[in-house]
Amino acid sequence: MNTLALTKNTMTLPISQDASAASAKDQPLDIQTIVEELKQASQPVGNPFLDDPKFYTRDVDVFYNQVKQAIFGVDLDIGKNEVIAMIGPSGCGKSTFLRCLNRMNDTIDGCKVRGQLLLDGEDVYAKEQDPVLLRARVGMVFQKPNPFPKSIYDNVAYGPRIHGLTANRSELDDIVEESLKKAGLFNEVKDRLQAPGTGLSGGQQQRLCIARAIAVSPEVILMDEPTSALDPIATATIEELIDELRQSFTICIVTHSMQQAARISQRTAYFHLGYLVEVNETNKVFTNPQHRLTENYITGRFG
Ligand SMILES: Nc1ncnc2c1ncn2[C@@H]1O[C@H](COP(=O)(O)OP(=O)(O)OP(=O)(O)O)[C@@H](O)[C@H]1O
């Protein structure tokens, strides 16, 4: 039997619970019991709903190839100008859920999304919704920096060009400069804008990808483990940048680093086996998690 030992370590987390709750938490649980419990919970623990959210998602299910259900009935609001971190054990569906938000799952054969997803009240999956325009509003930065095999300038200019956002070269120059500045890269590359983007360091390439996403003036930026391929210094630079970008954008970030989630996000959503288990203000999730699965994950007992 695949047993997850769910024991409580009060040495590492200041959690206030009565003795009976604590002893219930000490019971080891098998996966089937956990799944039954998650199925029965009608909504996540904590605070998944917001007034006037940027994204409103209800009862979201995702299937791969009609057989594998990766996301089960997720209800989650994402606020304006917030950084929300999505955490959870490998395979729990964080990336799958993230990709629902800008229909990147449409690009995966056999992937089907069900449920209600609204961006500023507008149905993301409506027939008349153009996924290319949607992805300009909801940009994405991936785990591995993926600059185009083009110059630094052309990487950033690409989106504004295909969306016809500028009337002339001077306007395009301004967007490229402004986007590189917002991504904290301009000073490092201003004398070599025609050099290949792929010639930059990993951290610089990731900031170039962020500049490319910013150049089309998105409203939301989705980040799927954006620093996992970077060293600690490049990671710190990106984390500072995320904090600045929050002034202008909503940011949803999938991360395996709980320290990172704690440093940069205002709210944290904990996923487990495809269910959204808990969502709350980040400091609450990390100091006083309400669900034992969250607690066990953040104290390192599984994941
Ligand atoms: N293209 C695909 N086809 C079939 N199954 C998939 C596909 N992509 C993901 N899955 C499955 O869906 C589930 C959720 O995967 P997902 O990548 O969203 O999880 P995750 O929490 O982001 O994982 P990780 O932290 O390891 O990146 C997993 O069981 C995974 O094997």
Structural description of this entry:
This is Phosphate transport system ATP-binding protein. With about 300 residues, this protein is α/β, with parallel strands linked by helices. The chain has one domain (about 5-300): 3-Layer(aba) Sandwich (Rossmann fold), CATH 3.40.50.300. It has 12 helices and 13 strands. The chain has helices at about 20-25, 30-40, 95-100, 130-135, 150-160, 170-180, 185-190, 200-215, 230-245, 260-265, 280-285, 290-300, and strands at about 5, 30, 45, 55-65, 70-80, 85, 110-120, 120-125, 140, 220-225, 250-255, 265-270, 275-280. It has a 7-stranded mixed beta sheet with strand order 3-13-12-6-11-10-9, with helices on both faces. Strands 5-4-7-8 form a 4-stranded antiparallel beta sheet, with helices on one face. Strands 1-2 form a two-stranded antiparallel sheet. Strand 12 and strand 13 form a beta hairpin. Helix 5 crosses helix 6 (about 170-180), helix 6 packs across helix 8 and helix 8 (about 200-215) packs parallel to helix 9. The protein starts with a strand and ends in a 5-residue tail after the last helix. Mean pLDDT is about 90; it is low at about 1-25. The structure holds adenosine-5'-triphosphate. Adenosine-5'-triphosphate (ATP) binds near residues 64, 90, 91 and 95.
